[in-house]
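quick one, two chains, predict together pls
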Amino acid sequence: MNAAIGTGMTEILGPPQLHAPDGFLTLPVAAAMWVATLVVLAFAVRRTNATLTERAVPLLGVMAAFIFAAQMFNFQVIGGTSGHLLGGVLAAILLGPWAGTLAMTCVIAIQALVFQDGGLVVMGANIFNMGIVGTLGGFYVYRTLAGLLGGEQRGRLPAAAVAAWLSVVAGSTTMTLQLVASGTTPIELALPAMIGVHALIGIGEALITVGALSFIAATRADLLRLRDARPAVATERAATERYA
Amino acid sequence: MTDDGRQPVERSPLGRHWWLAGLAIAAAVVIVLAPLASPDPDGLERVAEDKGFLEQAQDALFSIIPDYTIPGLEGSLSTILAGLIGIALVFGLMVLLGRVVARRRQS
């Protein structure tokens, strides 16, 4: 942990290691989370395979790259505590829940493999908590709320804000349950602490998600409709010509 | 309709390479914001510290670009370079995977 052992410049300038490291979860819990994650990812690949248009591939790459970059920026929440974007709801709104899940997985995998941010044994759990719970769950919360507010066009920003906040709180809750199942910490200590601090971090998540969506709506509103594009043969061919 | 009878291709304001603008925004986030990132522990690390299980953290099995700093390079430049490498890796891997997933359907 950088904050614990780091000295000098890196401690001041580098973001600390952020995701759960190996050792926080027991092997059985970590293995169970790997299984759950791989099952969801297999389904996500199948669903993305059926719906992803060639046109959306560059957006997939850009979104994953942006989420990686934004996750490096830790913002201050309260005294001595920071938080960072997850980005799952943002990815799901733009890419759809399944492709969004794949983008989050790609980010978390590179963070663990190249940047030693998050352990390898607990990577299944990290993908589950940060890439699946908030991305899939967040998307359906978003769509339901947007529907209640009179459609995505009108309800996009408030629905996204609520879903983004919930995605952080939900992810921290599943993380806590895994810690408790591992015997790392008792639930009565950890759950209020984790939910309390992530309720604040979730406000940052909501602000960044709304900000990014507003920016895209103002500059490239067509990207907001890419998610619903169907891979019909004709549009596929046109898309290939356009972005080949 | 153009002269050769094909439908004119709809162009976005940023043209066909709009994704370069997206990558530039991601790079700008790293260059401008990453060096300003709070060095304080994040939510999970704070709770781990307060509740006394932070010391259970194990060191990584191997280390390539630990803590988003290039080994041997100090200061903001190290963080920025690490971030740019990460952007390139994530974008490359994602586009590769996206192409594979999108292409398999056509066969």
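Chain A touches chain B through 89 residues (CB under 8 Å).
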